[in-house]
Amino acid sequence: MLNDLLSSYGIEPRKLHLRKGGFNRNFIVETSLGVFFVKERKGNNASNRSSTDAEISDFLHQRIGTASPIRNKDGQFVTNQEGSSYTVFEFLDGDDYKEEDFLEFADVLRRFHLEMRVYNGALFDGNDALNQSYEMI
User: Fold this and answer.
1) What separation in angstroms does the CA of 74 have from each of 42, 92, 109, 116?
2) Which of 6, 70, 71, 136 is the most exposed place for a label (fewest CB within 10 A)?
């Protein structure tokens, strides 16, 4: 199954590592082209959630250099197969941390929040119900 999925991205796996998530399964895939991260989603609206995640990830990749989703041979970020939705990302290794990495992480997190304001502003433009502020009682 994963071989067919990965071939739709032009990727031939050499080794797969399963990383279980809460409701999803994630794989780290070693290939001759490098290492990739595959996210599998199941359940209601899995395709819509995967598409939204990939769209936001691509936006953030262009703005601040986060991991980029990979397009399949059909030019799509998400591949639906056997009741699951899959998104493939370039893999960014994060096992070895140094003290200076935490400062860089804090800066990336700050930029992430700033860019999500831009993204959300574009997403919510023209929808007054979503742009309203509410006073908490």
Assistant:
1) 21, 24, 32, 28
2) 136
Q: Show the DSSP H helices in the chain as ranges.
A: 2-7, 46-64, 99-124, 128-131
Residues 6+ apart with CB under 8 A from 52: none
- Cα atoms in the 13 Å half-sphere on the side-chain side of 1: 11
Beta strands 84-90; 78-81: pairing state: antiparallel
pLDDT of residue 122: 61
Cα-flanking dihedrals φ and ψ of residue 94, to 5°? -135, 30
Instruction: Please tell me the pTM assigned to this model.
Output: 0.70
Residues in the chain: 137
- State CA 92 to chain mean position distance: 12
CA 121 to the chain's CA centroid? 20
Per-residue tokens: 88: 């493939």
8 Å CB contact between 49 and 87: no
pLDDT tens sequence across 65-95: 888 899 999 999 999 988 889 999 988 776 6
